[in-house]
Amino acid sequence: MKYVRIEFAGYDFVGANSGNEVNALSLGGVGNGTTLDHIQVSYGQDDSFEFFGGTVNASNLISFAAEDDNFDFDNGYTGTITCALSLADYRSAHTVSGGSPDSNGIELDNNAGGTSTSLITNPVINNLTIIGAKNGLAGQGLAYENAIHIRRHGKLTLNDAVVTGYPVGIKVEGTGSELSSASNLNSIFVHGFGTSVTGTGTAGIPAANLLTGTLASVWGMSQPFFNEGPWNVSPRNCGNFQELGQNMTSQFRNKT
Predict the structure, then answer these.
(1) Contacts of 118 (CB under 8 A, 6+ apart)
(2) In a 10 Å sphere around its CB, with 0-12 CB exposed, 13-18 middle and 19+ buried, how is residue 174 labelled?
């Protein structure tokens, strides 16, 4: 699959947070003989991309305005994602679990029970940009949860990443869960409205790379927030997102 756009897809066919989810692009046990490159998912009603196990690699992915998670990994997925962008539209709908927001940039589990297995979910993500809301006030950033949520015995290897505009930047939760020591921690830059990072493996990220505050940090980008005017994600433009983003903005701005 190369140069594909998926729009207004995805569905939870039993009820909110039932776990019976049809994501915009679901990948079940897909191997690394498959090519996934330059794929954009917009306004998915559940997760944009979900990797259920497998070893497939992917490059140049955009998740725009997901109702639930932008990227979801579980059941032993161990492939590599190179050059990925998650971009929020805070006027779109968002899932709620137990009365609290449940939309994440990345959600990562080893499995639903959080058990240790011989094969552990551990994607490698190189060159990742997660852009949430500019402002953490009600109606914007508070509609979201974590930019990256690693839980249930899952692991993530992360290199060259910028995340901003979520209440929590990176949250590692539960026994066995970790931001892998194989990550290039010096290349990870994290902002959270309330918390930048918490949990196993995050302590090694340099303090200078961690910020909190009501306004999201732009990390060298002139205006990366979809809802705040002309959009520009440079210098995080690894997949020619800028050209794609101009088309995306013109198509969707009037729909929100």
Answers:
(1) none
(2) middle
- Tell me which residue of 97, 108, 88 sits closest to 216, measured CA to CA: 88
3-state percent breakdown (helix, strand, coil) of the chain, nearest 5 = 10, 40, 50
**Cβ atoms 72, 44 nearer than 8 A:** no
Buried b (16+ CB within 10 A) or exposed e, 206-227: eeebbbbeebbbbbebeebbbb
Q: Nearest to residue 37, comparing CAs of 87, 79, 91, 94?
A: 79
Say how far apart CA 9 and CA 195 lie, in whole Å. Answer: 32
Tell how strand 195-198 and strand 168-172 pair up.
parallel
CB atoms under 10 Å from CB of 249, counted, come to: 14
CA distance 47 to 182: 27
What residues contact residue 253 under an 8 Å CB cut-off, 6+ apart? none
Tens place of pLDDT per residue across the chain (256 aa): 999 999 999 877 776 667 677 899 999 999 999 999 999 999 998 899 999 999 999 999 999 999 889 999 999 999 999 999 999 998 887 766 666 677 899 999 999 999 999 999 999 999 999 999 999 876 666 678 999 999 999 999 999 999 999 999 999 999 999 999 999 999 999 999 999 999 999 999 999 999 999 999 999 999 999 999 899 999 999 988 877 655 554 554 444 4
Alpha-carbon gap, residue 178 to 108, rounded angstroms: 10
Is 119 in a helix, a strand, or coil? coil
Q: How far apart, in whole angstroms, are the C-alpha atoms of residue 116 and residue 121?
A: 10
- Measured CA to CA, the distance from residue 65 to residue 132 in angstroms comes to 10
